[in-house]
Amino acid sequence: MRENDDRQQSFGLNENRTPDPAAVYAAVEELSRTPKRRRRGVQVAGGVAVGAGLLVGLVGVPAAFASEVSKPAHVNQVAATASAKDKAAPSPSASVSEEQARNAYFAAGYGLDEAEKLAKLWNITDLSATKAEAGRRLLAGQTLPIPPGSAPTDSEHDAQRAAFFDAGYGWDDAVKLAKLWKLADPGQAKVKAGAKLLAGQTLPIKPHANSEAQADKQVNAFFGAGYDYDDAVKLAKLWKTKTPYDAKVEAGKRLLAGKKLPIAPSAEKQEQARLDAYFAAGYGWDEAVKLAKLWKLADPGQAKVKAGAKLLAGQTLPIKPATPPAEPEEDKQVNAFFAAGYDYDDAVKLAKLWKTTSPYDAKVKAGAKLLAGQTLPIRP
Question: Which residue has the higher pLDDT, 10 or 121?
Fold first, then answer.
């Protein structure tokens, strides 16, 4: 009986050390309102996915943070206002999964650049482990030594990574460069390589293969110019490529470089491609009438074709569509994938894991899972 009395007394003494889950969630919610840095032009519905994952993760927070505290820390001010009682913030608990911790990290508005800074401050070599550690501290009600979104928009590292991919390099190349330069992380190799490319230097290896992003861009340029599959077949025979798809990629590459192809699309196909671009952008008859008056054209039909040509060339029209096109479901899923901190390299890994036909299909599948509140088999 005495032993049971001692246990009850011990439980009573430690009962209030468990943080109020409402307070913890309020703290993370407040942090998540800080303006977030756009990651390569993507800032969308992925927040819904991360928020859903965080809500699921917080269900087990009270049990996860029932550990003893050696030194009490100051509770985040927002958490204090959300809680009726002042409580000491527990030290980060290892019982919180890395997935839950990283979700909290991203939900608070932190990104890759902040992870790199924190890794240096904490002497952690693994960026993924850094994000998880930061997330645990946030969930424990602690504040991080740097604010979220502290890195400038379009940061230097973003520009360097973009230069790396724009030059046709990919994940396999980053792995090779990391080994060559004795870097711990292929991500660091991308940044270093991009910096060299922006400085006009050449890298010690050539691109492994045409990246998926570049190929998509080139194929889109091919179709956007009014060409179709039959034209690709003709070009494949003319250039002796393995497949019509290879001919599309090569043709798009030449078109983007301002070169002409040995065959021209029929006038009818070219006009149809321009009309498709016009309507796909959300424009209709009323806008065509306005554009015809603006450009002094006799027929609104001519205005549609001219407007479509401008859109295909990447130009903007002088008026906005009355009804902007709804975001396709696949776009939402892909955007959710990137917003959760994943990138092209992760899509390649998932494509191999799920045996999808392409990394793009893996992005769509992964985004759908994230929007449904599910977790992925790999971490960002």
Answer: 121
Q: With contact defined as beta carbons under 8 Å apart, do 25 and 58 qualify?
A: yes
Does residue 237 lie in a domain region? yes
Rounded distance, CA 82 to CA 28, Å? 11
Nearest residue to 29 via CA among 187, 152, 138, 185: 138
**Between 156-166 and 212-224, two packed helices, what is the crossing angle to 10 degrees?**
70
Number of domains in the chain: 3
Last residue of one domain, picked from the residues 101, 123, 139: 139
Confidence of residue 273 (pLDDT cuts 50, 70, 90): confident
* 151/80 Cα distance (integer angstroms): 28
Q: Quick check: 348 and 342 in contact, CB under 8 A? A: no
pLDDT grade for 220, boundaries at 50, 70 and 90: confident
Domain around 340: 331-371
Residue 196 in contact with residue 209, Cβ under 8 Å? no
Buried b (16+ CB within 10 A) or exposed e, 336-363: bbbbbbbbbbbbbbbbeeeebeebbbbb
Closest C-alpha among 262, 265, 264, 269 to residue 238 = 262
Coil, strand or helix: which one is 73?
strand
3-state secondary structure of 39: strand
In the block, tokens 């401050």 appear at 121
Q: What is the CA radius of gyration of the chain?
A: 26
Q: Where are the beta strands (DSSP E) in the chain?
A: none
Task: Decide: helix, strand or coil at residue 189.
Answer: helix
Token match 């994943």: residue?
342
End-to-end CA distance of the chain: 52
